[in-house]
Amino acid sequence: MFESVQGLLDEHAELQKQLSDPAVYQDQALARKLGRRSAQLNGIVEAYNRWKTLGDDLEAAREMAAEDPEFAAEVPDLDAAHEEAQEKLRRLLIPRDPNDARNVILEVKGGEGGDEAALFAGDLLRMYTRYAESKGWKTEILSSTESDLGGYKDVQVAIKGSSNDPAEGVFAHLKFEGGVHRVQRVPVTESQGRIHTSAAGVLVFPEVDEPEEIEISQNDLKIDVYRSSGPGGQSVNTTDSAVRITHLPTGIVVAMQNEKSQLQNREAAMRVLRSRILAHQQEQIDAENADLRRSQVRTMDRSERIRTYNYPENRIADHRTGYKAYNLDAVMNGDLGPVITSCIEMDEQHRLDAIGE
Questions:
Q1: Which residue range(s) make up the domain with 43?
Q2: Which of 90, 114, 118, 218 could form a cystine bridge with 110, CB 3.0-4.6 A?
Q3: Interior angle at CA 125, CA 140 and CA 173, nearest 5
């Protein structure tokens, strides 16, 4: 597996040369692309150098061990450190999702359960917002349709990070959140104290850095305008400011109504549309490629139940990884890290296993 390292070291050196050229920054899209790739390779270069240095030290200690007991005493610790460095390098060499470093547009939709499902969708939005705050990420509500009781029938939020390192990317962490999230609790509307089960759906799309990344012909768009509405269907604006855009080749539909300006709603809708088209293109690539590029954790089946939130037991359970903990109150307040880590680790192990097959 390590045979590929030299090519990556050469690529990293070439990238450093390009990034030191001021002319590169005249094309911001190119500079971002090169910076993102450089950040990904930085970790590999550092891990390789440590692995090689420890290997050299271990070899020297073994050669000197027969003559000097002090060197012999160092061998076990150096051997363990070398193996640890080798495993870290091996994991870094796993082919990454090309979108890992991107920001995301995350959508939460109330599912079965009526008002209770909408309230749960609002709770999930708060959970993701708090988690983003803990990571130092920025959030921006793009569109929302509130329910009568204060939850959300649907809501779209953009989440933006600050690192070019794919391992620290927003999409790298949140891409496993797509699917059906099930909640078990006593709804506020339940007078008998009975536990109900309802659900909300989550969709996660990598956000496009530059509009030029995704070519969209105006002839491929069907654009409708209409009056926006609020809870209960009442009219919010007296002008046709809401926008619905249909991408005819893929059938993807995006509607926006949060802004009072039709132009602002159209710009937001195009932003979401580009992200959905990018995700659609990646789905097609993943479907065509071998198992190495697929994930057992991140499924494209958006109807799959991925997680259960049980309030009476204060339990959170991920059905893909087997993760279970009894700190649901903390998770709903943004302490989502361990749950997401279980998904990342399972996905990495699956990719490692696929390489070894």
A1: 2-92
A2: 118
A3: 80
